[in-house]
Amino acid sequence: MYRLHCFAQSGNSYKVAFLLRALDQPFEMVFVDFMNGATREAPWREAVNEMGEAPVLEADGKRMTQSGAIMTYLARKHGAFGGATPDEQQEVLRWLLFDNHKFTSFFASYRFNRSFGPAAPDPAVMAWLKGRIDAAWSIADKHLAASPFMAGNAPTIADISLSGYLFYPMEESGYDIPANFPHIAAWLERVKAIPGWVAPYDLLPGERIAPRW
User: Fold this and answer.
1) Based on the number of CB atoms within 10 Å of its own CB, is 106 exposed (0-12), middle (13-18) or buried (19 or more)?
2) What is the pLDDT of residue 121?
3) Could you count the other beta carbons within 10 Å of the beta carbon of residue 33?
4) Mode of pairing for the β-strands spanning 27-31 and 56-59
5) Element (H or E) spanning 2, and its range?
6) Where are the alpha helices (DSSP H) in the chain?
């Protein structure tokens, strides 16, 4: 059985958990106390992940990290959600890299600073992040105006990856997706129709934390 080291606020953990459910694969969740600094401790990094991040997936005698790499492994192993043709597989990779570098990267930082950071966020930093988010999301919104999913007519790990953080409550980020990115909003409803979907706080371990700022 798979073992997933994860916690409730981690959209990257949610991506992997969602995919495992979509693949109908049983898995055990191991709570990572990220909010109290567990991943910064040397023993945890030595025993679990030298990068100091969740998720971590234990599978086939290996311990894997980085959600995009984990999802690629699972899609290949189980023959689903990886793209039906070589062209689609290349497109999946393209959007995974875009997600990790821009789409999720800027938004996850923005949401964390706004809701969970130890001090009130710097307005200048938040304005810069918001500009980067809006630019990346506009690219995806335009793409989804002409395509039901990121890499074609069927859902793939690219969709699970890009959507992962967007299923958290709006009050954590302040982003009104339907009002500003209608094609992303419509796509999220299609992603929610994938068997196995459930909201992050109904799936992952750990307590929900009210936004701080």
Assistant:
1) buried
2) 97
3) 13
4) unpaired
5) strand 2-6
6) 11-22, 42-47, 67-78, 86-98, 104-115, 123-146, 157-163, 170-173, 177-180, 182-192
User: What confidence tens digit (pLDDT) does each residue in 111-134 have?
Assistant: 999 999 999 999 999 999 999 999
Q: Are 57 and 2 in contact (CB under 8 A)?
A: yes
Structural domains in the chain plus CATH codes = 2-80+197-202 (3.40.30.10), 86-192 (1.20.1050.10)
CA–CA distance, 205 with 50 (Å, rounded to integer): 22
Amino acid identity of 55? Answer: P
For 48, the token pair is 């679990």
State the amino acid at position 138 in one-letter form. Answer: S
pTM for this structure?
0.97
Cα–Cα distance measured from residue 89 to residue 25, given in angstroms and rounded to the nearest whole number? 22
Instruction: Say if residues 95 and 158 touch (Cβ distance below 8 Å).
Output: yes
CB 82 within 8 A of CB 72: yes
Dig out the tokens for 37 from the structure.
Answer: 């600094």
State the Cα–Cα distance between residues 166 and 20, nearest whole angstrom: 18
Give the per-residue pLDDT at 33: 96
